[in-house]
Specification:
The structure is a single chain. With 292 residues, the protein is α+β, with helices and mostly antiparallel strands. It has 2 domains: 5-121, 3-Layer(aba) Sandwich (Rossmann fold), CATH 3.40.50; 134-286, Sandwich (Tumour Suppressor Smad4). The protein is built from 8 helices and 16 strands. The strands form 3 sheets. Strands 6-5-16-13-8-9 form a 6-stranded antiparallel sheet. The protein is globular and about 60 Å long. It binds adenosine-5'-triphosphate (ATP). It comes from Spirosoma endophyticum. One of its GO terms (cellular component) is plasma membrane.
Length: 292
């Protein structure tokens, strides 16, 4: 009898607002579907932050073909870190609050359909980015978006309503920053390095970003009067932000951003601080296989 191909599902028990029972049902559905399709399925839960990277790295070592991540963008990022530059493909089962990479790639937001896609889909090559030593697959950024990521991380409850509340509060507290971008000093409200076109929740910062073109879109929002905030928000969700006079963007393969003090950043929505105040951003073309 032919050996069954191994498929591992990594689930973050804390992702999103899905209950423990719903997550158990998803695990069972994954085991059933994978078994019916002729795979040798395994499922494992993360026990701490960073655990998904370790579990996925071990799967790569064992030659597991497909690794599914059942979680939000943070867990997708941790899993994908270990699968970069390997022959193991990533399946995304989105149950987070933003699901930026899944939405950009057109992966179903219904987790059962996403499991089916990951099991039946073919590996497609996409790019990834790096900001200093931190890999990202969707977006990384500075300014307001990093400020919100740091504020959101302090909230005890996840989910979209909490994110909106954090963003609204941050808008009144945040002051645009002076950054040196590739040698040019600028005052910016926000700045994104976009591999995918959106942050999540269909908030399109880089409407024309192509995830497999070997480039990142560098998108800047310059400071704007308070009364323009409504229109900019509407454009963000309407996929027309690039038509605003406050938005500017171009493609890059590498870039350097510097500040006078520690830099607040985010990588796929995870808040990070760069104590040196210097960030080197680069693209890693064709570095990840995603099941689509
Ligand atoms: N068992 C665990 N205990 C504590 N933290 C964990 C555990 N497993 C994973 N994590 C951390 O939880 C973080 C958030 O998870 P994830 O992104 O999947 O969900 P989310 O935040 O609800 O979704 P989104 O990123 O879409 O908002 C991950 O970055 C990961 O480091």
């Amino acid at each position: 009898m032919a050996t069954r191909s191994a498929v591992l599902a990594i689930i973050n028990p804390l992702s999103g607002t899905t209950s423990a029972e719903q997550k158990k049902l998803l695990q069972d559905a994954f085991m059933r579907q994978a078994d019916a399709l002729g795979f040798a399925p395994e499922v494992t839960q993360t026990s701490y932050a960073g655990h998904a990277t370790e579990l996925a790295a071990e799967a790569v070592k064992r030659g597991v073909n497909r690794v599914l991540t059942i979680g939000g963008d943070g867990t997708v990022n941790e899993t994908a870190q270990a699968l970069r530059k390997s022959a193991t493909s990533l399946g995304i089962v989105p149950i987070g609050s933003g699901n930026g990479l899944a939405r950009h790639l057109g992966i179903p937001l219904n987790p059962l359909k996403a499991i089916e896609r990951a099991l039946k889909g073919r590996p497609v090559v996409i790019d990834s980015g790096e900001i200093n030593e931190y890999p990202f697959f969707c977006t990384a950024g500075f300014g307001f978006e990093a400020y919100v990521a740091h504020a959101f991380a302090k909230e005890p409850v996840r989910g979209l309503p909490t994110y909106i509340r954090s963003a609204f509060r941050s808008f009144w507290a945040y002051k645009p920053e002076r950054l040196v971008v590739d040698g040019q000093e600028k005052e910016l409200f926000s700045m994104t390095f976009a591999n995918a076109g959106q942050f999540g929740n269909n908030a399109w910062m880089a409407p024309t970003a192509n995830i497999a073109d070997g480039k990142l879109e560098l998108c800047e929002i310059r400071p704007f009067p308070t009364q323009a905030a409504g229109m900019l928000t509407w454009r963000l969700f309407n996929k027309t932000l690039n038509q605003s006079s406050y938005w500017r963007g171009h493609s890059i393969t590498k870039s350097v951003v510097e500040a006078n003090g520690p830099l607040l950043i985010h990588a796929d929505g995870e808040p990070l601080t760069l104590p040196t105040g210097r960030a080197e951003i680069r693209i890693l073309p064709g570095s990840l296989l995603v099941l689509l």
